[in-house]
């Protein structure tokens, strides 16, 4: 445990001792800001592996998907590439290379809070403009937005049905360790009406940060043109379930232990994201499984091409392809949602789910 990690944990514990239990969402926000701010968690030697780190095919196919949509929508020369939480910049680098071959060379705007990951991104993509949040993105051009495993890292609130009614879950301290407790306030108004009669013990999650970013980006796409592709693990709610989890060294871990030293995430509910887009007048397509999407936009052909070019890597390429599309691996749990300006072309890859 580094000195920074123990200082963070001590500060968190004294804050809880001083002010009382913290809403779980605040705990997640503080922990992840510390966690991502001080390390690169990606890769075999880190805590988890994401799709762009598994294979270049992932970013390349997303780049081609964007270039195709852009070309069929009038090829506006001033369109900008925007990525939310770009990690090491691998997806962006692979996508921009593929876009360039298709004649699309956009300005690059990355929304990233971690100084460590910003440095990694700048090393791969020198001509990048960084943003702390979506508010400062350019307001005068169409946007081609990508977010892979970004929304799952945003803070989730948990509302739980107790014997006394719906209460917010908070992180307190039981004298020995961090523990979940309930706030006293009645939060039933925050529970989707369809779920208010859920049995005692039921947990409902909401993500105000996700809703706010989805609303802001949807407004921009409606005014500025463009589209967004959102990939993450999750579901289409409203749903009952506690999905807050932590991962350390590629294994599930206790989200309340070693705060700030492991990635704390929640499954993404795509319904409020799609709703924000529909409210802004955007076209919504999906979500569909990542496997179906990648198959529809040509991962099999790209895998064959790469294997022919590099026969020694053929087995690795096939292993990576399978991991991305297999329903038993990432193919089903990971979902893909596209939203776009109604005047833009219909996106490829969604089959009969196309709007
Ligand atoms: N998209 C990358 C990395 C996923 S990890 C990949 O697929 O490999 C989550 C990313 O989101 C990291 O880059 C992290 O630093 C960033 N992030 C987390 N919370 C954020 C926030 N509130 N604002 C901006 N970036 C954030």
Number of helices: 11
The largest β sheet comes out as: 8 strands, mixed
What is the radius of gyration? 21 Å
Average pLDDT metric: 97
* Overall body shape: globular
Helix content: 25-40%
Spans of at least 5 consecutive residues with low confidence: none
Structural class, by secondary structure, is alpha/beta
Number of DSSP strand runs: 16
What share of the residues does DSSP label as strand, in percent? 15-25%
Alpha carbon gap, first and last residue: 50 Å
Q: What letter string, H or E per element, gives the SSE order?
A: HEHHHEHEHEEEEEEHEEEEEHEHHHE
Ligand identities: S-adenosyl-L-homocysteine
Explained architecture:
The chain has 355 residues and is an alpha/beta fold. It has eleven helices and 16 strands. The protein has helices spanning 3-19, 24-37, 51-54, 56-71, 90-101, 115-124, 208-224, 270-279, 290-296, 299-309, 314-325; strands spanning 22-23, 80-84, 107-111, 128-131, 143-148, 157-162, 165-173, 178-182, 203-206, 226-235, 245-248, 251-253, 263-265, 268-269, 283-289, 334-340. The structure holds S-adenosyl-L-homocysteine. S-adenosyl-L-homocysteine binds next to helix 2 and helix 3.
Short description:
This protein is of the alpha/beta class and 355 residues long. 37% of the residues lie in helices and 23% in strands. The chain contains eleven helices and 16 strands.
Secondary structure topology:
Layout: H1 3-19, E1 22-23, H2 24-37, H3 51-54, H4 56-71, E2 80-84, H5 90-101, E3 107-111, H6 115-124, E4 128-131, E5 143-148, E6 157-162, E7 165-173, E8 178-182, E9 203-206, H7 208-224, E10 226-235, E11 245-248, E12 251-253, E13 263-265, E14 268-269, H8 270-279, E15 283-289, H9 290-296, H10 299-309, H11 314-325, E16 334-340
Parallel strand pairs: 2-3, 2-5, 3-4, 5-10, 10-14
Antiparallel strand pairs: 1-7, 6-7, 6-9, 7-8, 10-16, 11-12, 11-13, 15-16
The structure holds S-adenosyl-L-homocysteine.
């Amino acid at each position: 445990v580094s000195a920074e990690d123990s200082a963070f944990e001590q500060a968190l514990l004294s804050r809880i001792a001083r002010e009382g239990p913290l809403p779980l969402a605040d705990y997640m926000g503080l922990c992840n800001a510390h966690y991502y701010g001080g390390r690169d968690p990606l890769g075999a030697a880190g805590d988890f592996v994401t799709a762009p780190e598994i294979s270049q095919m992932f970013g390349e196919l997303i780049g081609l998907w964007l270039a195709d949509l852009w070309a069929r929508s009038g090829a506006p020369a001033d369109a900008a590439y925007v990525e939310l939480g770009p990690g090491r910049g691998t997806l962006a680098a692979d996508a921009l290379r593929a876009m360039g071959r298709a004649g699309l060379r956009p300005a690059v705007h990355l929304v990233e809070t971690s100084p460590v990951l910003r440095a990694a991104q700048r090393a791969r993509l020198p001509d990048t403009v960084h943003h702390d949040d979506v508010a400062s993105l350019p307001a005068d051009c169409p946007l081609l937005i990508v977010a892979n495993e970004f929304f799952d890292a945003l803070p989730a609130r948990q509302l739980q049905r107790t014997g006394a009614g719906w209460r917010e879950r908070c992180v307190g301290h039981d004298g020995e360790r961090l523990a979940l407790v309930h706030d006293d306030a009645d939060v039933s108004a925050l529970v989707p009406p369809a779920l208010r009669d859920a049995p005692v013990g039921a947990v409902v999650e909401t993500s105000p940060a996700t809703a706010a970013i989805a609303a802001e980006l949807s407004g921009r796409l409606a005014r500025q043109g463009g589209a967004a592709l959102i990939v993450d693990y999750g579901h289409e709610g409203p749903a009952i379930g506690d999905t807050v989890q932590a991962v350390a060294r590629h294994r599930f871990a206790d989200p309340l232990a070693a705060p700030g030293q492991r990635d704390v995430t929640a499954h993404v509910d795509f319904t409020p994201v799609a709703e924000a887009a529909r409210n802004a007048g955007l076209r919504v397509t999906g979500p569909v499984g990542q496997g179906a999407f990648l198959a529809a936009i040509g991962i099999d052909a790209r895998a064959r091409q790469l294997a022919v070019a590099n026969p020694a890597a053929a087995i690795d390429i096939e292993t990576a392809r399978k991991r991305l599309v297999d329903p038993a691996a990432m193919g089903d749990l990971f979902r893909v949602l596209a939203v776009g300006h109604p005047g833009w072309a219909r996106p490829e890859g969604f089959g009969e789910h196309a709007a």
